[in-house]
C-alpha cells in the first residue's frame, strides 16, 4: 500500500499555514469592519453633532430637534407605512399563487416563466417606472389617450403621479418578481407528504393550498414579508420621480432632501438614519432567525411528487401568469422604446412623429459616453471584487473555527439592514472627514466600494448556502498530500464553487449597473453613472433622452443575465 511521505518540517509548515489563514481572516474582518460597521457608527455619532459635519465635533441634540420638529416628518413615516401595507398586501398573495403554480403544477413553459421573473427582478426600477409613466401620465399617457376615445370619458382615469401610481410602479418594478424568485424554489423543495395526504383524504386543491401548503410555508412567508419591509425602507428612486408632483415624500426621500438642500443638514439626516436603523435592525434579526429555522422546518426535499394536473385550467392559468410576466417586463419596455423614437411622446398626431434625433444626440453626448464608461467600470469592478470578498467571508464563517467568525457573519448581514442611501451618508463621513481617505472621494473606487457593500448580504449568503453543502473530503485529501491552505482554497474549493461564484459576479454586475441609492450621494459629475444620468433626465422631465439611456441600461442588464443563462448558470436560491 502506498504511503504518503510527510516532511519532517510539516509541523512548522502547518504552523505557518495556520498563521497565513489567521492573518487573512484578520484582514478580511478588519476590512469589513471598516467598510460596513465604521460608516454605520459614524452615522449614529454625527446624529449628535451640533456643529458642521466637517468641523470639530460638538455634542448636542440639535440635529434630533431639527429632524423631529419638522412638521412633515410624521407624514413621511406614515407615507412609508401606507406604501408598505399597500404594495406588499397586494404583491404577496399574487406571488404566492404564481410561485405555487410554477413549482407544483403542470403549467406549460414553467421554467421559462420563472426565468422571466428573474429578468423582471434585474430590470432597473427606473426603466420600468419610465415605461409606466408613458402609459399612465395624466397628460400624455397612452392608456389615458385611448380611454378618452370611449364615449362618456372626458379625461383619462389613470394618474401615475399618485399614491396608487407609486404602488403600481413598485408592483411592476420588482415587488412581485422578488417574492416569486424566492418562493418558487421553496415551494419546489417543500416536503409534499402532507399535501398528498390531504388530497387522499378528499380535500380539494384550494382547500389543500389554504389549509396545508400556506401554513407549512408560514416561516418562509414571514421571513419574506420581513425582507419586504426592510426593502421598503430602502425604496428611493421611484418615490423621488413620482412623489414631488403631488408632494408625496417618504423616509428615504426625506433623508435625501436634507442632504441635497443648501446648506446640507448632515446632522438631521444622520438622526433620521439612526431612527431608521433602530426600526430596521430588529427586523433583520427576526428575518435571519426565521431564515435559519426555515432550513430545517420547511425545506426538506425528501419527497418528489408528480406535478398537480390543472386539467382544463392549464391554459387559462398559463395565460394569466404570462400576462403578469408581460406586464412586468415587455409592456413597460415597449413604451420606453417607443418614446425613444418619438419627437414628443404621446403626440401621435404630429406630422412625422418619429425620429432618431434623441439617439443621435444622447449617444454623441460626452456626458453619456463618460457615464457608460463609469457604469462599466463600476459594474465590472463590483462583480470582480465582490466575488473575492464574499467567498472569503463565506469560507471563514462556514469552514473555520475562529471565535470572531460570528462577528464577521453579523457584519455581512448589516448592509441588508441599512438602506443604500444611508450607507452613502456613512461613506461620505468616512472619506470626507479623514485626511488619509479624502483624496478618494469622487473616485470610481468609492462607487465600487458602495456597490460591493450594498450586495454583500445576498452574495455572501448564496455562497455560504452552497459551501455548506460541500463535503470536507477533498479539502482533507489536499491537506494530507501536503498542499497549503491557500492552494487548497484556490485550487480545490473555488473551482468547485465556480458556477456559484459566476452567478454572484453576474448578479453584482447587474445590481451595480442599475444602482441609484447607493451612489446617489457619493457620485460627482466625473463619476456619474448611466442610472444617475437617467434619474436626472426623468426629474427634469426630459422623457425621450431618459428613454434612450434606459434602454442602454436594460440592454446591459438583460444581456449579462442571458449570457449567464447561456453558460448554464441556474439562477436560484437554495435556502
Summarize this structure as a short list of keywords or feature phrases.
single chain, 575 residues, mainly alpha, MetI-like fold, 2 domains, 26 helices
Describe the 3D structure.
The structure is a single chain. With 575 residues, this protein is an all-alpha fold. The protein folds into two domains: 10-46 and 356-575, Orthogonal Bundle (MetI-like fold), CATH 1.10.3720; 77-349, MetI-like (MetI-like fold, Orthogonal Bundle), CATH 1.10.3720.10. Helix content is 71%, strand content 0%. The protein is built from 26 helices and no strands. It has helices spanning 10-46, 62-69, 73-104, 110-122, 125-136, 142-147, 163-189, 193-200, 205-216, 218-234, 237-242, 251-260, 266-297, 314-328, 330-340, 357-364, 366-399, 405-417, 420-433, 444-454, 456-467, 473-480, 485-496, 498-514, 530-539, 543-566. Helix 18 packs across helix 21 and helix 22 (473-480) packs antiparallel against helix 23. The protein is globular and about 80 Å long. It starts with 9 loop residues before the first helix and ends in a 9-residue tail after the last helix. The relative contact order is 0.13. Residues 1-13, 294-303 and 569-575 have low confidence and may be disordered.
